[in-house]
Design a protein that fits this description.
Elements lengths: L2 H17 L14 E9 L11 E6 L2 E6 L12 E4 L4 E4 L1 E6 L15 H17 L2 E6 L5 H8 L7 E4 L3 E3 L23 H5 L2 E3 L3 H14 L4 E4 L18 H13 L4 E7 H10 L3 E7 L2 H10 L2 E4 L4 H5 L6 H9 L2 H11 L4 E3 L7 H4 L2 H6 L7 H16 L23 E4 L13 H4 E6 L2 E5 L4
Parallel strand pairs: 1-4, 1-5, 6-7, 7-8, 9-10, 11-12, 12-13, 13-14, 14-15
Antiparallel strand pairs: 1-2, 2-3, 5-16, 16-17, 17-18
Helix pairs in contact: 5-6, 6-7, 7-8
Amino acid sequence: MTLMLRGALLATLLLTATSSGTRAQDPPQASGDLTLFENVRIFDGKNATLSAPSNVLVRGNRIETISPQPIAVDRRADTRIIDGGGRTLMPGLIDAHWHAMMVRVTPAQAFGDVGYNNLLAGAEATDTLMRGFTTVRDVGGPAFGLKSAIDEGTVAGPRIYPSGAVITVTSGHGDFRQLTDLPRTIGGMLTRMEQLGGSMVADSPDEVRVRTREQLMQGASQIKLTAGGGVSSPFSPIDVTTFTEPELRAAVEAAENWGTYVAAHAFTSAAIRGAVAAGVKCIEHGFLMDDATARLIAEKGVWLSMQPLPEDLRLGFPVGSVQRAKADEVWPGIARSYELAKKYRIKTAWGTDVLFSPALARQQGAILASLARWYTPAEALVMATSTNAELLALSGKRNPYPGKLGVVEQDALADLLLVDGNPLENINLVADPGKNFLVIMKDGKVHKNALLK
């Protein structure tokens, strides 16, 4: 091989390594096309009232101007004018606990054909966007390829903040092996779930570091571990605390070295306290925490990512199954946890955690609307927009979409919904996006415009 050829090959390898996930990739920028929303009342994602009638100019993929006065634009052929007719313009919705690869498949299919599963996930991603969810935080699953396809414009879908594989321990939540798969050979063949990138088993601080760094290498914006037992895993009792503190610290250290954070699945007070002591920045669920633990979360400034899980999800587990028994144990704690979150003013994010149910995915907006049990419509919608965006920003330079999300502000990324009505008065409008979301824009591109005749 000639010196020149070797040099060219080395350059190619370096470029490939740089683009394969060693750093978060900026999505392709939208063109300089103009979209002007005229006569809209704005819910900005932060305030509990709508603006006076206003006009909003989007250039490319960002909001350029917001003004109560008419905005003069060059009304060229590619300038899009949308007459809002006094309707509500608001930020695109954000689901902070989503599993993009695990919505339409059954548990058995999740271990099956990769091509089929990706096609299902792509179709679901498009439907997710058409429900008005322009961003999701994926907290477990092999979503890196789907994210790339969406960012490239091959598939229509939401922005994805991927965690990659859930990192768990032997018999922890996320370990879906059967007893016939034991004993595990350290350093041996990966199991099917690990080969697919759904979850990875790590039983020492060193293994945790390796698995964490592997997800970061692939482009993870944050890391997800399971610090306690879970409902859907067959050999993971709810009361069990899984990782040791040194193991959790290994993940936190590796993530912080990359400028990002660890989110930990945890129901019980013991699991939550261990995660907080190790430096975890976000607790997922927390449904069985006690008063003192809620106070600790607030004092430490840790995020609580909660989900108002619908009864249909619990009832979907067969009566008499281990999963149904665990669901029955967890569900009564949901209401109390929301009350504790409000009592101690915990930084609370919102998500859905839909798994293996396209029917429940279609209720994504209705699950958001169900927050009305504890919050005003404005409080719930702020949580699902600007508050969730604050959580996403914890990923620092691993943020795949630098810019302001979850708000309607000058220079914010143009993820916008035009709503037929006022969701600050009637939050149930978000439960029927097909009817009530007349325009859906993501990254400055209109994916739905029901005002066109």
